[in-house]
Write a structure and sequence with these properties.
single chain; Polypren_kinase; endoplasmic reticulum; transferase; membrane
């Protein structure tokens, strides 16, 4: 029993994943690989200790999910190191310069520091817990020393290795402090996220989101500081890499919308203070005033504040909104036709599946798999023929989702209650009444591999990682397993061997069809079948075993292994 609980299926798959990453890492990235190894050991230890002890975290996590610390801590650093492996091949072929490679190394250490800071935060909570008992030897004094040794060793390695690879003299200290700042910010942010949104995520899911947000915000802050002449010369050297207009627009809009609730809450407090003074006692008037403040402040943020930042960090020459219109109408026939096609597919799918969800007894988890198929039909042609426009469209869709979720949570008149009722038709056990995240995970699962493949990419299937793993593999596994599955992977789980086999087989068949199609459109095929088989198998097994939000993790695992 102890051995089964110490090494469950999810941990075994993650160990296989990390082993493949470390095996493929060249010697030039030895320090990064060693840091990932130590981070994996520390995360695995904390994951086992938390799941097999009487310790209770001081916040509510998603019911029915394991802690997921091991998977959540290693996923993003593994993605970054796989991307480093890819850029190292490009650097040896003189396809990219030292500046791009150095920028990605800083991003890797910032990601590792973020995950590492969260592990320290969890470790401190466990040490201070009065209910700190466990039936396994991991809670012995030797186990505590081992855990702290892994954490300290990884921290020292990050500091020493980063200092050794820096070529900026005294400025290396400032750059090192900048990286370590990400760890502190991640620890504070995950505490805020888990307290603000109780029962919405496991620790591993919150860790993945937190480290990603800290990295994204840090990159935005870094490129902003790099444009300012002053003492932060290292940031100018590292964050001064060339950026595309589309990535800058997406980054500005997404982060602006994420920060918008703070600004809106401040304005709302002022409004409520005025309303409580007796001048606006009617509830309807309060709701209309709240709605007016919301839409006015949102328009001000999107039209004035965010574009001002975009023009500061990148020379657009025209207003970014005008740049978007110019970009779309530079190929009007193709891009407008694609927009009309998307709108038609979305409208037909929503009308069809929304009626089914209200009048049918079909399980919601199965019903939502049809949206995965819809994602394939929408995104696959665009990835092949209009990849840049799809990048922008993903950003627009994410901005729309964020706006609608803010409207739903705050119940902004007149759409707040309508959006809430509509979204409830598609929620399942992984969503909560406070926050609906499944549609975000599906969109980002498809978008992130495409966004990360911008620039140099010598693995033609890498941009399709989300579409293949979620749209085809995950969907076929659920459908076949639900209808024909008999042999279950575990006595308590619902996932079946037949479903997993169908998911793996369907992705392999799709890849065998997609690769010749890509070759006919001019792609140079350099995809290794060994890495493809490993990626398909590992992602399929993770879907079968994990209790985490698979839409968030599977595409990143699949993408990382495809890049090797």
């Amino acid at each position: 029993m102890a051995s089964q609980s110490l090494c469950n299926g999810e941990r075994a798959v993650v160990l296989l994943f990390i082993s493949a990453i470390l095996y493929s890492t060249p010697f030039s990235l030895f320090s990064q690989a060693l840091a990932l190894f130590l981070l994996s050991i520390a995360a695995l230890f904390l994951d086992i200790r938390l799941d097999n002890s009487d310790f209770s975290v001081p916040f509510k996590t998603r019911p029915g999910a394991s802690s997921g610390i091991f998977l959540g801590a290693v996923t993003l650093p593994a993605v970054m190191i796989s991307r480093l492996i890819q850029l190292s091949r490009a650097f040896s072929l003189h396809e990219v310069g030292i500046k791009e490679l150095g920028y990605l190394k800083v991003q890797y250490w910032a990601t590792s520091a973020s995950c590492f800071g969260v592990l320290i935060f969890i470790f401190v909570l466990m040490r201070r817990s009065p209910n700190n008992s466990c039936t396994f030897s991991s809670n012995s004094p030797q186990g505590l020393k081992f855990s702290s040794s892994c954490i300290v060793s990884c921290a020292v390695l990050c500091c020493v290795s980063f200092a050794l690879i820096s070529y900026y003299g005294l400025h290396a200290v400032l750059l090192l402090l900048w990286v370590l700042f990400h760890g502190v910010a991640a620890a504070k942010l995950i505490q805020h996220v888990l307290n603000t949104f109780p029962s919405c995520a496991s620790i591993g899911e919150a860790l993945l989101v937190t480290s990603g947000l800290v990295l994204y915000f840090g990159d935005m802050l870094g490129c902003t500081i790099a444009k300012i002449d002053g003492y932060w010369i290292p940031l100018d050297l590292q964050y001064g890499v060339k950026r595309s207009e589309i990535s800058t627009i997406i980054q500005g809009v997404v982060l602006g919308l994420l920060l918008f609730p703070i600004f809106f809450k401040f304005l709302l407090q002022i409004w409520e203070h005025i309303a409580s003074s007796g001048h606006f006692e009617a509830r309807a008037c309060n709701e209309i005033g709240k709605s007016l403040i919301f839409h006015t402040s949102l328009a001000f943020i999107l039209i004035v504040i965010i574009p001002s930042w975009m023009q500061f960090v990148l020379d657009f020459h025209i207003h970014p909104l005008l740049w978007i219109f110019k970009f779309v109408f530079s190929e009007p026939l193709k891009r407008l036709s694609l927009c009309i096609y998307w709108v038609g597919v979305i409208y037909a799918s929503i009308m069809r599946f929304y009626n089914i969800s209200k009048n049918s007894k079909v399980e919601r988890i199965l019903l939502r798999k049809y949206y995965h198929l819809m994602a394939v039909s929408m995104f696959l042609p665009a990835v092949i023929f209009q990849p840049k426009f799809l990048d922008l469209a993903f950003g627009a869709a994410l901005a729309a989702f964020l706006t609608l979720e803010i409207i739903r949570v705050w119940r902004i008149w007149p759409l707040g209650q309508l959006v809430h009722q509509f979204m409830n038709a598609f929620t399942d056990h992984r969503d909560s009444n406070l926050l609906v995240v499944s549609h975000f995970s599906l969109l980002l699962g498809c978008a992130l591999p495409i966004w990360m493949s911008s620039g140099y990419n010598d693995r033609p299937l890498a941009p399709f990682a989300g579409i293949l793993s979620l749209g085809i593999g995950d969907t076929m596994a659920s459908m076949v397993g639900h209808k024909y599955g008999v042999l279950r992977w575990s006595k308590t789980g619902k996932k079946t061997i037949e479903g997993t086999a169908a998911g793996i087989t369907s992705v392999l068949v799709a890849c065998s069809i997609l690769l010749p199609l890509l070759a006919s459109t001019g792609y140079i095929l350099t995809q290794h079948w060994v890495s493809l088989l490993l990626a398909v198998t590992a992602s399929g097994l993770l879907e079968a075993y994990t209790a985490q939000l698979d839409n968030a993790f599977i595409p990143l695992i699949f993408y990382s292994l495809l890049c090797l």
